[in-house]
TrEMBL record:
The keyword Transferase applies. SUPFAM superfamilies: Nucleotide-diphospho-sugar transferases. One of its GO terms (biological process) is UDP-alpha-D-glucose metabolic process. One of its GO terms (molecular function) is UTP:glucose-1-phosphate uridylyltransferase activity. Its EC number is 2.7.7.9. This is UTP--glucose-1-phosphate uridylyltransferase. Residues 7-273 form the Nucleotidyl transferase domain. Keywords: Nucleotidyltransferase, Transferase. It comes from the Bacteria. It catalyses: alpha-D-glucose 1-phosphate + UTP + H(+) = UDP-alpha-D-glucose + diphosphate. InterPro entries: GalU_uridylyltTrfase_bac/arc (IPR005771), NTP_transferase_dom (IPR005835), Nucleotide-diphossugar_trans (IPR029044).
Length: 295
């Protein structure tokens, strides 16, 4: 458990246009990854790191998210009467993970704007931001490491991952200085979705942050950037270069990450997670080999 009670914020107000028409009426965060919606993996990750107070930033047509984390007495009674204890346990578990709150973003004006909507809830304390598109394998803890680094330095912490330089234009890229720990770097600058030849490194920001409350004042005066949106990266850039602040550090993640924000990567995530499951893997893995042989 972190020494201070940290809260987590999960922005979930995006339109999910890459998954249309599936997301016409269903939030993209509710798309199933094997047998759980993507957002449940993120909430479980927060709980595993000791966070039990979570704010989800939602938009229109996102009521399915709050419904998922509510109890459903009629379903629970039916499963109990049938003696279906395993499914009953899994249904009830989704309602007991954490204390979950919701606030509306209004119109989607970028990640920075979504984060700013959390100010009243998190107050003057540091908090985690967790993007629902990035699933971190529970066997490779990341958030707990980031929280520990924040407690050590008092700084803002971002998660970084080495990516193919040809793909850096899809991410925010970090300019860094090495520290004595090869997995911890000092961030000296950030560029949102740079061209390959303009990227300061191939270290990409992935969807985990531990932010200090100083970010809120910066976001209030941050002007819209690329795409007309208020970019969190712009605020992080100011924090990284402020001469009188604790700065920004990066935790370089070398574990298993599943990107569910892209259709192909979403399918890969399902295949990878299902293949590793004890209840599904033994039947699926031989079939994967047979299927691959037909391609």
């Amino acid at each position: 458990m972190p020494p201070t009670r940290m809260k987590a914020v999960i922005p979930a107000a995006g339109l999910g246009t890459r998954f249309l028409p599936a997301t016409k009426a269903m939030p993209k965060e509710m798309l199933p990854v094997v047998d759980k919606p993507a957002i449940q993996y993120v909430v479980e990750e927060a709980a595993q790191a000791g966070i039990d107070d979570i704010l989800v930033i939602i938009g229109r047509n996102k009521n399915a998210i709050s419904n998922h984390f509510d109890s459903v007495p009629e379903l629970e009674v039916k499963l109990k009467d049938k003696g279906d204890d395993e499914r009953l346990r899994r249904v009830m578990a989704s309602s007991d993970i954490a204390d979950i709150h919701f606030v509306r973003q209004g119109e989607p004006r970028g990640l920075g704007h979504a984060v700013s909507r959390a100010r009243a809830h998190v107050g003057d304390s540091p908090f985690a931001v967790m993007l629902g598109d990035d699933l971190i394998d529970e066997r490779d803890p990341l958030l707990s490491t980031m929280i520990a680094e924040h407690e050590r330095t008092g700084a803002t912490i971002v998660a970084l991952m080495e990516v193919d330089p040809d793909h850096i234009h899809m991410y925010g890229a970090a300019a860094v200085e090495m520290t004595e720990n090869t997995d911890i770097v000092k961030v000296t600058g950030l560029v949102e979705k740079p061209k390959k030849e303009e990227a300061p490194s191939n270290l990409a920001i992935i969807g985990r942050y531990v932010l200090t409350p100083a970010v809120f004042d910066i976001l209030e005066r941050t002007q819209p950037g690329k795409g007309g949106e208020i970019q969190l990266t712009d605020a992080l850039q100011e924090l990284a270069t402020a001469p009188d602040g604790p700065g920004v550090y990066g935790v370089v993640f070398r574990g298993r990450r599943y990107d569910t924000g892209d259709r192909v990567d979403y399918i890969k995530a399902i295949v990878q997670l299902a293949a590793d499951r004890e209840d599904l893997g033994p039947e699926l893995r031989p079939w994967f080999k047979e299927f691959a042989a037909t391609l």
